[in-house]
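Hi P.,

Sorry for the delay on this. The queue was packed all week, but I finally got your sequence through. Input first:
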Amino acid sequence: MNITRYLAPGLCLTMLALSGCGGDGTSQLTPSSTDKTVITGMASKGPIKNGTVEVFAIENGVEGTVPLNKPGQTTDAAGNFSIDIGSHTGPVVVKVSGSFTDEVSPTTTVTLKTPLRAVLSDTTTGTNTVAVTPLTELACTKAKRGGLTKAAIDDANKAMAAKFKLADIVATLPVAGGSKAGEKEYAAACGSISQLANTNSTTSGKKLDDALAEVMSKMENEIEVHGDLSAESETELNDAGVEFSHSENNHSGATEATHVETHTGV
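Then the structure:
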């Protein structure tokens, strides 16, 4: 009796689990989502289409210089992304660069002069959701001022959410016309910054790309120096929020205008 003809199928099945029967000896198993760390979410200032996404580790309060993810990973047409960073866990910075269709001037494509960032105090094995927006960019600046410790990152994200009267600026995604109120309110907050940039463009005569960069740079400088936005910037954001709420191009679905918390500081 030819024993080999009876053993071969079982042997092949056993070897398949180890190296792929008939393969080249390398494992053919694909790790499940529970075996790796995945960063998934949305990049939006209007949705950033086909934007480049990079994820950097934070070690001892210092942001790394080499991305954890493979090069060439991008957002889709709606600004969504899913990035595998292998077995890495812990704090990270997510950076997205690219262009978007402006919410206030929908015939205009705006290119970001500098990437938008979001900072997470901890990533764990499995799926980690993050929004990358102008609000998370401001929070990242605030967190860096505090030394990029876990406490500084968490405090910065919470403080910027509270500033714009939002529940969460990291785990909630800014979806215009979304199914949840928080998504709509977040989209409206992004729209208010677009409105502010458009106002700056109109009064200064600058291209919208440059006007947005100037608006963001002003607010980030205030946070770097004082730890918070100036009273002037808060007033400008509130005026822009009201104007955007009445705009025919406001498709956020939010029922109220974006209103930032004001103070009597700088």
